[in-house]
Amino acid sequence: MPLTREQLAQRAAQELRDGFYVNLGIGIPTLVANYIPEGMDVMLQSENGMLGLGPFPFEGEEDPDLINAGKQTVTAIPGTSFFSSSDSFGMIRGGHIDLAILGAMEVNERGDLANWMIPGKMVKGMGGAMDLVAGVKRVVVVMEHTNKGGDSKVLLDCRLPLTGKACVDLIITDLCVFEVTPDGLLLIELAPDVSEEEILTKTEASYQTSSDLKTISV
Fold this sequence. Notes:
- The chain is an alpha/beta fold.
- The protein is about 15% helix and about 30% strand.
- It has four helices and 13 strands.
- The strands form two sheets. The protein has a ten-stranded mixed beta sheet with strand order 4-3-2-1-5-8-10-11-12-13, sandwiched between helices.
- It is globular.
- It starts with a helix and ends with a strand.
């Protein structure tokens, strides 16, 4: 069965490491904040000027002054700091963020990413994604494997305007996990009860399969 949004966030949380500074994109990536392993010291950064985001608040406990870059209410943790957006982007552009977990509309076999606009549709702005993929040490994409029409989102070439080229290190979909290597995509994990044949059918990009293929554990 394909992974749920919560399971996708749990799998993405496995990429966190103690002491990391991490930026979470809008959508499924924001859920990662709820699955930081107990005892792990991770500082979540938001490009609107907050370092030290906690889990989402319970209903009735929201503080409208505490929001992330997606305008969702968040919580603060001990040691949280607040600063200007320019300082926040200084952190990103200066290479001080260890990991970005982002959503995507399309990714190709070289690790190119398209996640900020669909031509002809209204877009509020490009946000911080272009800075993130250029300045962060490691980029993990979390997304559904196909779009609403059933077409693959893991492509030979992206068709939408690019956010960045050769910037993605790991692709986590609801069906599998691909590592982006210098030789192309490497299939390293399958969702429970998902077959290699299904991945082949639903993936436009070419890829190799790891000799140590595992089942996603969440």
